[in-house]
Amino acid sequence: MKLDRILPFARIxxxxxxxxxxxxxxxxxxxxxxxxxxxxxxxxxxxVYSFDIQNEAIQNTRAKLENEGLHNRCTLIHDGHEQLNxxxxxxxxxxxxxxxxxxxxxxxxxxxxxxxxxxxxAAIEQLFELLAPEGIxxxxxxxxxxxxxxxxxxxxxxVQNFPQQKAHILKYGFINQANNPPFIVAIEKK
Length: 190
Fold this sequence. Notes:
By secondary structure, the protein is of the alpha/beta class. The chain is 33% helix and 25% strand. It is built from 5 helices and 7 strands; from the N terminus they run αβαβαββαβαββ. A 7-stranded mixed β-sheet has the order 3-2-1-4-5-7-6, with helices on both faces. The longest helix has 14 residues, at 117-130.
């Protein structure tokens, strides 16, 4: 297949914008894959802020980062992504070039704990103001679980009404796959 699948495409977008020395945000830490990927992009002189509300996610991510020697490049935050303004250091404002949110539930975790449109929108609004010009926020929207379609619809309404003069917004996904395939929404600050 020549078309990029969803997660590889998200990484391609991040590779285009996050450089060594930059600041990045993982809004949904999960099992640490995106946090580690971002830490590789930001390098030794950059930094990654990673958020999750579940202890299991913190533990899994910490173990992954330590195993890969990336733990000193990341701040793991046991709080919701809608609280990011409380945690980002002032010297990092305007230096954030990339962020990713994998929406839904923690893979391998409690499927009743899911992301919510209201907290995600609050996080996007805060983060957008802190982004560097041409910085990108990526939403990977998984919507095949209970509550997922409501979150999807609310977020799509939100991004479709985002001011065109502030951002370019892209939707990328496969439309002929079964089982509610995930898709990407990428928000690039002008």
